[in-house]
């Protein structure tokens, strides 16, 4: 088991060590199941649509929402009317996959828990997780079909409509509490759960978060969407005291600030105030990381704010921004699990996001070209 020492105490590599093969060095330090993720496994149904389609279902060009009754026909219409692609999705699962892709060896550093149906889409998700070398352990039930997410793309915007279905059926006592599953949780040293899972199983999140806090391990979470900050803020604030690393983008940060009465729209101030919220494990100071699309990434630490410019990209090279945020987190997690300095974690995050937005869905080439 890796040391539970706070990350800040890790010495930086000497110049001699830096010249060693990074992949060999990383492989020596890493073992399976060190990174744990839990969330909503969804099959993404992606298509380039038109404004009329967005208007028909009252969708904003760039948003994430849960499907309501008025969206039920949307999924069928999307498949009938447009050229669709299917990709294994779900925010947390995407991030764990990207982290595993960045790490490469050994396989199965990333573990993922979530709920699927006993159906064709569920089989696809199992197959895709195996191909990505992620150790996925799904709770399978036959009450609800595997969840789907319509990714409606217009230009470089994406509007996501999630029909959670099976993903909403995750049960702590039926899966997380099982001895063989909880052992996998205990093996991890870095945990990541997207805010979307707050709508599904708060008790599962709290069990994992409290374990991480008690053992001085890293618990990471994402604001995920404005609606989480608005309508699930009570759940979010129950978990906040356990969060060591909080991710979000500029629109989520703004929604969070408004709901928390921060009385500022300045993203750096919002990051500072989120960083200073009460925390249970005082051995670790919270880190807040906010992305802003093509603008600089903001990181709030206990005593300062740091900014990091993103990698430049020609707009014509952007294929699909769906998954950019998940990829950013995945890159960051790959650095955390290897105990890299925070600036290196951001560099890995920016690299991952830059790769993913050049491709359809949250997909990636065989190997990263990241040093």
TrEMBL record:
Keyword Nucleus included in the entry's annotation: yes
Entry-linked Pfam families: PfkB
E.C. number(s) listed in UniProt: 2.7.1.20
One function term, GO molecular function aspect: adenosine kinase activity
Principal subcellular localisation of the protein: nucleus
Protein name in UniProt: Adenosine kinase
Occurrences of domain Carbohydrate kinase PfkB (ranges): 54-365
Reactions performed catalytically: adenosine + ATP = AMP + ADP + H(+)
Biological processes per GO annotation: AMP salvage; purine nucleobase metabolic process; purine ribonucleoside salvage
First-level EC class: transferase
Note on cofactor: Binds 3 Mg(2+) ions per subunit.
Active-site feature positions: 326 (proton acceptor)
Function: ATP dependent phosphorylation of adenosine and other related nucleoside analogs to monophosphate derivatives.
Oligomeric and partner information: Monomer.
Natural source organism: Poecilia formosa (Amazon molly)
Subcellular location: Nucleus
Pathway noted in the entry: Purine metabolism; AMP biosynthesis via salvage pathway; AMP from adenosine: step 1/1
GO annotations of cellular component type: cytosol; nucleus
Cofactor: Mg(2+)
Family, per entry: Belongs to the carbohydrate kinase PfkB family.
This protein's UniProt keywords: ATP-binding, Kinase, Magnesium, Nucleotide-binding, Nucleus, Purine salvage, Transferase
Segments of this protein annotated with the region Disordered: 1-25
Signal peptide coordinates: none
